[in-house]
Specification:
Helix content: 25-40%
CATH architecture of the largest domain: 2-Layer Sandwich
Strand order of the largest sheet: 3-4-5-2-6-7-1-8
Distance between the termini: 81 Å
Number of strands: 17
Radius of gyration: 26 Å
Number of domains: 2
Number of helices: 16
Length: 472
């Protein structure tokens, strides 16, 4: 059987420029196109063509692994009645199909695989030479930061398509691509494609009003069909808090102050990511000076990461690390030891400070505590950038059946940084009231002599003598 690629698909006129750019060897492309503009049709068919030009691995990345299966692997093209992936990659060009991994091996030697940005660094085997981020605005931005050096090294290409979700990482990559000669960038609203008639657009708008109400309905309409970054993230929980901090100039350069201990608040992921906020309580302010997030790592990795900030030029002197309240029950590797016990054991190898459990409160109470905490915070805009994106995106889903927002926030890439910040909001007062256990000479330099008692001098001297005897 003769197969001509692309198989059974002809691009629309406005889709041809990005295809030409990629066909001519372009490496980076961003399409900010409206809903139903055919973004995935373009990039699926390009990926198939590219796989036959250069042998390698090609990944098509959706925000979540489960979404990749539902919206791509199992999805049927309503115009043809054929599965989308089967039409682009017909059986005649395949040598194998792995249903479990959503992976296709082609006779030309290349592979195509659907993956999720929620588990990007858990994939094993050879890295990709071609990569598509579909719905990038709701994907984990850390995935691109992780994969970008791989494509730079192997000369691979990457494409990003999405409708906006507020002023987040998708807006940043659009602004950057628009300003770069070596990137392709294209914006298409419904006025640019003529896919819908004016009457159809008015019907869509009225349906959105009926479903979401005039305010959210119009925001959804502008976001999805006029690709507006100005429309608010639907159901956003803290976006207004972040915007207020930015307006007040509290998202800025926030340097580490060595006069005060550094505390951390953690959300530890077993199947998803672990997020850590680093903060100092200085007077009535909370200085959030750093943020870290990683996927699928062992406890030792995170302890070493925290210790790295202690022994490098950052010179962090730790107070307390607040772990999730269930850290004494949950286990993560290490022969069945609890998470808390693993941290305590590792802490004996370096100056990690104390490990504590966050109080157990309801999620809603934690969300409200965080809302009350934001006005006290200053965030370092560089080191906390990824975490701030997550806090801004954290949102409730809309229940189409009940016509209300869900009680629980959506569990996605933003959940873990948001959970860790909820924990921070529950413990910062205790952190503020903790006695400073740093060396007396440091306290004499950085603080008032009146705050140092003879008792504290004696206690520290005795502790040093005891440590010397134990080590001797």
């Amino acid at each position: 059987m003769d197969i001509h690629l692309p198989n059974g698909w002809t691009p629309r006129n406005y889709q041809k420029p990005v295809l030409k750019y990629l066909h001519d060897g372009g490496k980076r492309a961003v399409t900010r196109w409206h809903r139903r503009a055919g973004k995935d049709d373009v990039f699926l068919n390009h990926t198939c063509l590219a796989a036959h030009k250069r042998k390698g691995n090609y990944w098509y990345m959706l925000p979540e692994y489960a979404q990749a299966r539902k919206s791509m692997w199992d999805a049927i093209n309503p115009h043809t009645g054929i599965k989308r992936v089967d039409q682009v990659f017909p059986d005649a060009i395949r040598s194998g199909t792995n249903q479990q991994e959503m992976k296709i091996t082609l006779k030309c030697g290349s592979t195509f695989q659907l993956v999720g940005s929620d588990n990007y660094n858990s994939l094993v085997g050879s890295p990709p030479v071609g990569l598509v981020f579909s719905e990038y605005a709701i994907s984990n931005p850390s995935a691109w930061a992780y994969l970008m050096p791989i494509l730079e090294e192997n000369g691979g290409w990457a494409c990003f398509n999405s409708t906006p979700r507020g002023k987040n990482h998708f807006q940043k990559i659009c602004l950057m691509a628009e300003d770069r000669d070596d990137w392709f960038y294209d914006t298409r609203t419904v006025d640019h494609t003529s896919i819908f008639t004016p009457q159809q657009m008015e019907n869509i708008r009225q349906e959105l009003y009926a479903q979401y109400g005039p305010e959210f309905g119009e925001a959804m309409f502008q976001q999805e069909y006029y690709v507006s970054f100005e429309a608010a993230v639907i159901g956003a929980i803290w976006a207004d808090c972040i915007e207020k901090l930015r307006f007040q100039g509290r998202i800025c350069s926030v340097p580490h102050d060595p006069a005060y201990p550094v505390h951390t608040a953690w959300d530890i992921g077993k199947k998803d990511s672990t997020a850590i906020w680093f903060f100092q309580v200085i007077g009535q302010d909370i200085h959030v000076i750093n943020f870290h997030q990683s996927n699928h790592k062992e406890i030792d990795f995170y302890c070493d990461e925290v210790l790295r900030y202690n022994i490098t030029s950052m010179g962090y002197r730790y107070g307390s690390h607040w772990l999730p309240h269930d850290a004494t029950q949950d286990r993560l590797g290490q022969g069945g030891k609890t998470i808390l016990q693993q941290f305590v054991d590792h802490g004996k190898r370096g100056d990690l400070g104390k490990f504590k459990r966050t109080p157990s409160v309801s999620r809603e109470s934690g969300i409200q505590a965080a809302r009350a905490t934001f006005p006290r915070c200053k965030f370092d805009e560089t080191l906390c950038d990824d975490g701030l994106e997550a806090l801004k995106f954290y949102h409730h889903a809309y229940d189409d059946e009940k016509k209300i927002f869900s009680d629980q926030p959506v569990h996605d890439w933003a959940s873990d940084p948001a959970d860790a910040f909820r924990y921070l909001s529950l413990v910062w007062k205790e952190a503020r009231n903790e006695p400073d256990t740093g060396p007396i000479d440091r306290q004499l330099i950085n603080k008032s002599v009146q705050s140092i008692s003879m008792g504290s001098l004696t206690k520290q001297h005795l502790n040093r003598m005891k440590a010397a005897r134990n080590n001797g």
